[in-house]
Design goal:
Blueprint lengths: L2 H14 L2 H8 L3 H15 L4 E3 L4 E3 L1 H24 L8 E7 L1 H18 L3 E7 L6 H4 L3 E5 L8 E8 L1 E5 L1 H7 L14 E3 L7 E4 L5 E4 L4 E3 L2 H9 L5 E4 H9 L4 E3 L8 E7 L7 H15 L6
Parallel strand pairs: 3-4, 3-5, 8-11
Antiparallel strand pairs: 1-2, 5-14, 6-14, 7-12, 7-13, 9-10
Helix pairs in contact: 1-2, 1-3, 1-4, 2-3, 5-10
Length: 298
């Protein structure tokens, strides 16, 4: 097994946490993968994995080596793409991450259209409601909602979202419409932890108006909170795109619009900069055009 293949096996084992799973993904036998890792560890003079009967885990040395190995393989892919003229014909697998609901509603349809346009591409979309370290976790691209901290990442802004408070018309008819943020303390609140994990809701462009709400019901799913509000039980807070269909069909109504915080920007981010492989550049251009054309994100 040459050094390049050994790196590919190492990354695959690290991601699968299994020699069998890694070997299967690479079309190798499990003994071949095991021998490749053993040879790599012997050459380095360092243990990269701790092995148990159930799981394979990276050592501290292995975690550091994984970041470097991914970077080397990514740069090699970029060089191969350039040599093949892949700027107009991207190839390989695109691995991206995005929030659950945003991915379901917006990214999945864009991905399938992108794959239809580029038959030599495949994609792995991992939907997580947390900020992912692109390099350490092996992603090419991420969708980020909210202000971006200073970093070495390249970012392309593709839209923005509002943070809205909403309720069903039936609920508002029974309990009245809040006229100021402080009125929320008199209402029945359902909170969704991915959107509002704290009980302090901030309002105003500068977010200086703070209301301590007392949820009667807390759920871990935004979709569940919206469903409860849609059924008339209480009021919830969500991102505008999550309730857009309900607003359009009048099953939910937004309130306190004049007190909303500044919109949250949406970015596509990646770590490769101008040297990004063609698969990343092509998808960013493809997705940017479609997201910017969506009226619900502006």
């Amino acid at each position: 097994m040459d050094r390049l293949q050994a790196l590919e096996v190492f990354v695959a084992v690290a991601e699968a946490e299994s020699f069998v799973g890694a070997a299967r993904s690479l079309g190798l036998s499990a003994p071949s993968a095991t021998r490749g890792i053993n040879a790599l560890e012997d050459r380095l003079g360092a243990r990269l994995f701790t092995r148990t009967t159930r799981r394979v885990r990276l050592t501290d040395v292995g975690k550091t080596y994984l970041e470097d190995a991914r970077h080397i393989l990514s740069q090699l892919q970029a060089a191969d793409d350039t040599a093949k003229g892949a700027a107009t014909n991207p190839v390989g697998q695109l691995r991206l991450t995005c929030p659950h609901e945003f991915g379901r509603i917006y990214i999945t349809p864009i991905l399938t259209a992108f794959l239809d346009a580029h038959p030599e591409m495949s994609a792995d979309a991992v939907m997580l409601d947390r900020v992912v370290n692109l390099v350490e976790e092996g992603f090419d691209l991420a969708v980020r909602i909210g202000p971006l901290p200073s970093s070495g990442l390249s970012a392309v802004r593709v839209g923005q979202l509002r943070r809205v408070v909403c309720a069903s018309p039936a609920y508002l008819e029974r309990h009245g419409r809040p006229l100021s943020p402080s009125d929320l303390q008199e209402h029945q609140i359902v909170s969704a932890s991915p959107v509002s994990p704290v009980t302090e809701w901030r309002f105003g462009l500068d977010q200086q108006t703070v209301v301590r709400v007392k949820p009667r019901l807390s759920v871990s799913s935004v979709a569940a909170a919206i469903s409860v509000a849609r059924n008339g039980w209480g009021m919830c807070r969500a991102l505008s795109y999550q309730v857009m269909p309900d607003i359009h069909d009048h099953s939910l109504v937004t309130v306190l619009e004049e007190f909303e915080p500044a919109p949250l920007p949406i970015h596509l981010v990646h770590a490769e900069g101008r040297r990004a492989p063609a698969k990343i550049r092509s998808f960013v251009d493809f997705a940017k055009q479609r997201l910017k054309q969506n009226p619900g994100l502006h």
